[in-house]
Amino acid sequence: MAKLAGPMEIYPLLPGTNCKICGEANCMAFAAKMAEHTVKLTDCTPLYEEEKYAKNRAKLEELLRPPVREVVIGTGEKTVAIGGKLVLYRHDLRYTNPTAFFIDIADNLDAEAFEKRVKAIEDWTYVYIGQGLRLDGVALRCVSKDPQTFANAAKKLIGLTDWPIMLCSLDAKLLSAAATAIADKRPLLYAATVDTWSELGKIAAKHDLPIVAYAPNNLSDLASLATTLQAMGVHDIVLDPGTLSRSALGTTVDNFNQLRRAATIADNEQVGYPLLCTPISVWADYKEGDAPELTKWDEVLTAAAMIVRYADIIVLHSLDMWTNLPLTFLRSNLYTDPVKPVSVQPGLIKFGDAGPDSPVMYTTNFALTYFTVESDIKQGNVDAWLLVIDTEGMSVQSAVAGRKLTAEKVAEAIQEYGLGEKVNHRIIISPGMAARISGETEEASGWTVKVGPRDSSGIPKYLQKELWKEE
Ligand code: SF4
């Protein structure tokens, strides 16, 4: 694997003044965080402001350059960054910039249908473990085959949304017309081929636009296209090696694998760019009378396979909850930091009109645990307090086993969040999975511990029947 720079390679190139401007205690601490890519080099402002550090800055930028370059689409607050990957395998560090989902819209839709689809793309959302899952951009397809219609639709689109846009046509004249019309919005151009690179490369270079190089199932043409575009002055390139038919999905996966391995393991700069996949291609085989659900299913399967196999951006047609929900779940799980469990803020949470006589429970700050318990309490429609204990994002069972949830921690949290001042009683309900520390907790806290249900789905019944008050 292309080696990630360690702190001892980074440190000698920093100013070494320990000025703390970056927010770290000294340059060594900054170097250690830089090696983990949890801070940005630009946080060391002296490096950028003082000319004497220019040489070292250039060396550091090269040393820390991700093997897959980052490409930004759009302008303003709604930009989306793709690529920027540092490693082939997530467990080697973490994946950055989650796969961006762009949904297509045809340029020849009537005004009402056009607006409705843009709104549906923007409104698609689902709350999952406390995060709002969303889509990322709109892919405007030239179906009209008319440059004026395509350019007008692009202008109409930027009037309706400030989301990142991708312009799609393999005809250079059509693509150029729309690209020129909305160049200041920095759309992603799809796509330059072996036949159109000259005309489209000039447009991308002139307006500094990101562009896709497309050579289906031909990796050497694709690498040449990327090299040529770069030589023309195009900075932001995305590679599309083709999303072949469902029966050739294995070949599609192989092509993506080869490109990403070449970039990250062999450090081949020629292909060190984000990868684009078009699961929407399955609709090319759709015929009048076919069941659309089967094609949607094919699209989801292709997208899921390619999200796992390094696609940095995908283009989809389906906009149903059932098609995009599993894909956004998959993306969310793949792009979490493998060494940092997803957690919530510890503290004391009030449900309903909880008051001095209301029950008090405790749980851990592992996000999945917290949101499951939260949902079960809300379903029970009861007034209650929930003490969320910092277990470094571990679930109840793992935290008890790993000594991250101990009697002392529960006692400390009771004190820290002033539980004694919120309620008149001194009874706390422990999760069923933490039953084995209930005796120690009583000793450490002075509170009576009632053991609640092992599964939080039992909480509503437990609270409604006021079982916690029984002797
Ligand atoms: S801002 Fe730069 S010079 Fe100052 S402590 Fe941080 S790394 Fe060192």
Could you please say which CATH topology of the largest domain applies here? TIM Barrel
State which percent range the strand residues make up: 15-25%
Question: What is the alpha-carbon Rg in Å?
Answer: 27 Å
Bound molecules: iron/sulfur cluster
What's the pLDDT, averaged over the residues? 94
Number of domains: 3
Helical residue percent? 25-40%
CATH architecture annotation of the largest domain: Alpha-Beta Barrel
CATH homologous superfamily placement of the largest domain = Dihydropteroate synthase-like
- Class from helix and strand fractions: alpha/beta
Largest sheet: 8 strands, parallel
Q: What's the N-to-C terminus distance? A: 62 Å
Overall strand count: 17
Determine the number of helices (DSSP H or I, runs of at least 4 residues). Answer: 18
CATH top-level class of the largest domain: Alpha Beta
Anisotropy-based shape: globular
Widest sheet: strand ordering: 10-9-8-7-6-3-12-11
Residue ranges: pLDDT <50 for 5 or more in a row?
none
Explain what the structure shows.
The chain folds into three domains: 7-63, Orthogonal Bundle (3-methyladenine DNA Glycosylase II, Chain A, domain 3); 70-334, Alpha-Beta Barrel (TIM Barrel), CATH 3.20.20.20; 347-469, Rossmann fold (3-Layer(aba) Sandwich), CATH 3.40.50.11600. Helix content is 39%, strand content 16%. The protein is built from 18 helices and 17 strands. Strand 8 (188-192), helix 8 (197-207) and strand 9 (211-214) form a beta-alpha-beta unit. Helix 6 (147-160) runs parallel beside helix 7 and helix 15 (407-416) crosses helix 17 (438-445). It starts with 6 loop residues before the first helix and ends in a 7-residue tail after the last helix. Bound molecules: iron/sulfur cluster. Residues 14-15, 17-22, 24, 26-27, 30, 44, 46-47 line the site of iron/sulfur cluster.
